[in-house]
Structure formats: C-alpha cells, structure tokens
Amino acid sequence: MSNLNGAYYGPSIPPPSKTYHRPGKGGGGGGCCGLFSCCCGCLCSCIFNLIFQILFTIAIIIGAVVLVIWLIFRPNNVKFHVTDTTLTQFDFSTANNTLYYNLALNMSIRNPNKRIGIYYDSIEARAFYNGQRFAATPLEKFYQGHKKTNNLTAEFKGQNVVMLGSKVSNYDEDKRSGVYGIDLKLYLKIRLKFGWIKTTKFKPKIKCDLKVPLESNGGSSGGFQATRCKFDW
Fold first, then answer.
1. What keywords sit in the KW lines (predicted)?
2. In what order do the strands lie in the sheet with 227-228?
3. Distance (Å, whole) CA 204 – CA 158
4. Does pTM surpass 0.85?
5. Which residues pair with 92 in a beta bridge?
6. How many CA atoms lie within 13 A of 128 on its CB side?
7. Which of 40, 156, 158, 225 lies at 20 to 30 Å from 138 by C-alpha?
8. Is 99 exposed, middle or buried, given 0-12, 13-18 or 19+ CB atoms closer than 10 A?
9. Whose CA is closest to 227, among 106, 142, 76, 129?
10. Over 51-71, what HEC string results?
11. Which residues pair with 219 in a beta bridge?
C-alpha cells in the first residue's frame, strides 16, 4: 500500500470494549442494599422499643392497681385449726404392710378479713403417717364471708397398704405411748372476692402436724391439744 503524503500511521487501533454490569452485583447495587438494610434496622428497633414501652406501661398499671387493692383491703392470712380428734383404731400389720384406721377430725377455718370473701371451690383432706399417705377424702365446698368462722369435719376409716420400711420402729414407739404423729394436709382451690371482683383460682396447701391420742374403751391416752395449721407452699 502506498503511503499517504509520504507518512506512515501504523496499524489501526481497535475501538475500546464496552463493560456491562448486572443490577445487584458490583459496587452500584451495594449502596442501594445498604440503604435498605439501614431502614429495616431502624424500623425494627422502633417497633421493639414501642412494644417494650407498652409492656412496661401495662406492668406499671397492674402494679399500681394491685398496690391500691392491697392498701384498701389489707388482706390477712386465713387461720386453720384442728380443734378435736377422735382416733379409735390405728393398727399396722407387718405381715401385709396394711394400716387399719378410724379417725375423725374437727377443724375450724377463720377468715379475719373485713372486705374479702373466699370461695372454697375444692377441698381435699389427706392423712399421712411417717410421710406415707394412707387416706384421703373430699370436703364440702362453701363460701366464707367477711370475718367468719366455718367448722368442718374430716373422717377417715378403712385400711390401706403403707410401706413403713425401717420406720416401723416409729410406729412401735407411738403404739407404746398411745399417741400417734399424724399429718393432715388440705389441698385447696379457692377464689377471693373483693367487692364485685373475683380473682382466678389459687391452689394453696395447708399442713397440720398432729399428735393424736388413741381412744380405747371410751377413754384416751391423753387429751388432744388444739393445733394451728400452716401454709405449705
């Protein structure tokens, strides 16, 4: 090829190649994604803070209501006593590990509160000897008004297998003295009444540690001492 005007320009230079970037890849999409993540984080933080503030406010309101109710009604613990017992049989057979019993208990329940009534929706009395339950009986449900005292009777009669094991010696000692260490437990389901407000059910337990004398031929091995029971939470 002949040179134009005697000058040589060399080989032709190819045009620059074009670079294509797909959306979401590379530096261009990252800024948008970071902005969206920042907005999401702020929104979630605001929602969690709002929920926390609502729950905190509700807790404060409930606490204030409970405090006001307590200041108004000033609740006192209900008092449980076993006032009298009658035990005419309490025989344990080592041959078949069976306890034969005939026991009656008189109890008093005192509500000392001036503005609180109590619904006794369920009462179950259970009798224990050396940690072993040998009898149980349901008692009548009732409503107890302000500053009222109610009397109940629980009767246990029959026979049951009781595994005393090494504690048979405790029974022998009680038999010689004529006074038996019997525990009474009351399992309650109660509701409280504040004016027209009724609470949900509570399930307290009452425990009475008793020393019960055996009666024989119309007499006893010693008079029973009225015993105050305690809450067994």
1. Membrane, Transmembrane, Transmembrane helix
2. 148-161, 98-111, 79-93, 227-228
3. 27
4. no
5. 99
6. 10
7. 225
8. buried
9. 106
10. HHHHHHHHHHHHHHHHHHHHH
11. 216
SS3 string of the chain? CCCECCECCCCCCCCCCCCCCCCCCHHHHHHHHHHHHHHHHHHHHHHHHHHHHHHHHHHHHHHHHHHHHHHHHCCCCCEEEEEEEEEEEEEEECCCCEEEEEEEEEEEEEECCCCEEEEEEEEEEEEEECCEEEEEEEECCEEECCCEEEEEEEEEEEEEECCCHHHHHHHHHHHHHCEEEEEEEEEEEEEEEECCEECCCECCEEEEEEEEEEEECCEECCCCCCEECEECC
Over the stretch 69-101, which tens digit does the pLDDT of each residue have? 554 555 688 999 999 999 999 999 999 999 999
Question: How far apart are the C-alpha atoms of 206 and 80, rounded to whole Å?
Answer: 8
54: tokens are 């609502």
Q: Which residue has the tokens 């001036």?
A: 114
Cβ partners under 8 Å of residue 28, min gap 6: 21
Is residue 137 within 8 A of residue 124, CB to CB? The reply is: yes
Q: How far apart are CA 72 and CA 83, in angstroms?
A: 32
